[in-house]
Amino acid sequence: NKVDALGIGPLFKRVFITHRFGIQHAKPSTHCFELIKKAEGCDWQDMLYIGDNPANDFVNLNKLGMQTVRVLTGVHRDVQVPPAVDATNTIQTLVGLSPTLEESASRLSPNS
């Protein structure tokens, strides 16, 4: 899977791959994220989504208060979008993910 191929599995306790929830729930739908939130028993601000396509990855998740990270790689790296549509955090490569995760962890709600 993507996580294993990228070698980032050890950074996370659990990883959810959104396309496994079915094409009918593809982004920008929040359906799978609502299921994840319920399964994890957490708040929106305790969740972190990492993506690269501002056309559909972040807009609805930002509205819910989820933390979002855009990786500026691949075919979407030069796409410019309004701040309301883009991720709340941006990194150049996955190498920049660790500091973002540490910052996100410091903002977790007390019941996480």
Q: In brief, what are we looking at here?
A:
The protein is α/β, with parallel strands linked by helices and 112 residues long. The protein contains four helices and three strands; from the N terminus they run H-H-E-H-E-E-H.
What attributes does this structure have?
globular; single chain; Rossmann fold; alpha/beta; 112 residues; hydrolase activity
What number is the mean pLDDT? Answer: 85
Order of helices and strands: HHEHEEH
Number of separate helices:
4
- Major sheet strand order: 1-2-3
CATH architecture: 3-Layer(aba) Sandwich
End-to-end CA span? 27 Å
Radius of gyration: 14 Å
Shape: globular
CATH C-level class is Alpha Beta
State the helical fraction.
25-40%
Low-confidence stretches: none
| Largest sheet geometry | 3 strands, parallel
Quick one: CATH superfamily? HAD superfamily/HAD-like
In quaternary terms, these chains amount to single chain
Q: What fold name goes in the CATH topology slot?
A: Rossmann fold
Number of E strands: 3
- The percentage of residues in β strands lies in 5-15%
Derived structural class: alpha/beta
InterPro entries: HAD-like_sf, HAD_sf
Keywords: Hydrolase
Organism: Bowmanella dokdonensis
GO molecular function, one term: hydrolase activity
